[in-house]
Automatic annotation (TrEMBL):
Alphabetical list of Gene3D superfamilies matching this protein: Bacterial extracellular solute-binding protein, family 7
Protein name: Tripartite ATP-independent transporter DctP family solute receptor
Listed CDD domains: PBP2_TRAP_SBP_like_3 (cd13671)
GO biological process: transmembrane transport
Organism classification: Bacteria, Bacillati, Bacillota, Clostridia, Lachnospirales
Amino acid sequence: MRRGLPGVLMGVVMAVVLSGCIGSEQTVAKGDPDKNQGPTEAATPEYVFTYAENQAEDYPTTQGAYKFAELISQKTNGRILINVQAGGVLGDEKSVCEQLQFGGIDFMRMSLSPLAEFVPKLNVLQLPYLYRDADHMWQVLDGAIGKDFMNSFEGSNLVPLSWYDAGARNFYNSVRPIRRLEDMKGLKIRVQESEMMIGMVEALGASPAPMSYAEVYSALQTGAINGAENNWPSYESTSHYEVAKFYTIDEHNRVPELQLCSQPTWDKLSMADQETIKECALESAEYERMLWSERERKSEEKVRQAGCQIIELSPGEKQKFQDAVKPMYEKYCSDYMDIVDAIIDTGK
């Protein structure tokens, strides 16, 4: 939020600004502790903004946020500062997004699953088994189709800035290896509170159990659920691998994430500042993707060393999973089937 500097309150506000500066310097240090970052003669901050991130400090998306803050501080000579608040201290993604819409929070990183409630067209990008692999997804998002989605936020009070990687989501459970579609039957699988994710698990023959991600470990431990689905880093960092040792690589979803700015915050900025923020967002996205790739590798290695059973579906079995969810394409995205077809054909 913008901090004004009325003469009567100069002393108080300067204390706030100095506090913001200290927070920003700490934020920059976390982004890359081996570099001497920040301007040598910083201008008095004109803006001190807040960035909400629900992942831990060392998570790739959080480190991407710190890089974003660092770059903006550098390129504006400290005139624009961003304080990253990690670990979900500002609330869950949905409540933070609502605050973003009226300017209560300035920036955030958000998964497309809850974001699609605010921008329904985004449901297309989380259709199960939509992409052949990671390269296919980035060809789509970094090309004309991705730009078209970026232009779909009008009226949402949200400004999309850049795509972040969140890897591929896979199923894991505590009961048995999932090698065939039939192995899904009877399993109770935790999903995000998303109609599409619920529909996907039902289409595959399992029972969906929508619940907060924070509840999953104890629910697996007590048997309230049999499994869940997520990417390698999430499976490892939450220690879910300790209580659900069967991990099936089916890559049913590659759900990218978005850096977002509040429209009220965006409207305060000059066009030059808006361009700077866009440039920094894109640069931080490249950094986050690099970190994500390395984190995936380390997480998979740790899980394998812990003795978890990793299952890779045969091409024939994976096709059965894909066929089972195909009716969802028309059900959830009937108005956008031309886009779905364009995505499928990209890179062929």
